[in-house]
Design a protein that fits this description.
About 55% of the residues lie in helices and about 10% in strands. The protein has 8 helices and 5 strands; from the N terminus they run ββααβββαααααα. The protein has helices at about 10-25, 30-35, 65-75, 100-110, 120-135, 140-145, 150-155, 155-170, and strands spanning about 1-5, 5, 40, 45-50, 55-60. Strands 3-4-5 form a 3-stranded antiparallel β-sheet. A two-stranded antiparallel sheet has the order 1-2. Helix 1 runs antiparallel to helix 3 (about 65-75) and helix 1 packs across helix 5. The longest helix has 17 residues, at about 10-25.
């Protein structure tokens, strides 16, 4: 694959696709993603065991797209899926740092002519906002994100409130 004449190796393409799928489909923090090991994935339930802030453990659905990306990553590059190894790693097998992932993210933004202020953490915000806008309960989203306090999750309801106001204005006869 080429981006503006820059070749991207199969390894990077598959790994970076997996990173993006997992970040958006799970809402996990970047640090949580980089801590994932193969033993943390439940392929039957399409979920992952996440070790979050304060060493709190939670089960997080990751979705079929993430599971497919993970399978393509393992099979496509021929890496071993040893249960104790990091899922997200460098070509040498080292665990990636948050800065390395952020740099890769910026690479794709630049080559996609996308706003450069988008970050891996904004995928977490998008995940929460999309869940709430599609009817998920605020308390459920709190649990999925691993927030200790509901007030941390409520920041995502502002978009939902705008949606509610818009629907009200369009549909209520006295609006």
């Amino acid at each position: 694959m080429l981006f503006n004449q820059e070749k991207i190796s199969k390894f990077l393409l598959l790994r970076d696709t997996l990173i993006l799928e997992l970040l958006y489909n799970s809402g996990m923090r970047l640090s949580e993603l980089l801590s994932l090991r193969y033993d943390d994935i439940d392929f039957e339930q399409n979920s992952a065991k996440i070790l979050g802030k304060g060493n709190k453990e939670r089960i997080c659905p990751i979705g079929i797209y993430s599971i497919c990306a993970l399978r393509r990553w393992v099979e496509g590059v021929g890496i071993e899926s040893d249960g104790k190894k990091w899922i997200i790693r460098s070509e040498k097998g080292d665990r990636l740092t948050p800065r390395q992932v952020q740099n890769r993210f910026k690479f794709y933004l630049r080559h996609g002519n996308l706003p450069m202020d988008i970050s891996p953490h904004k995928l977490r915000h998008s995940y929460a906002t999309h869940m709430l806008n599609n009817g998920a309960d605020l308390r459920l989203v709190q649990e999925l994100l691993g927030h200790a306090n509901l007030s941390s999750t409520q920041i995502y309801t502002h978009v939902n409130s705008k949606l509610l106001q818009s629907v009200y204005n369009k549909t209520h006869p006295h609006a």
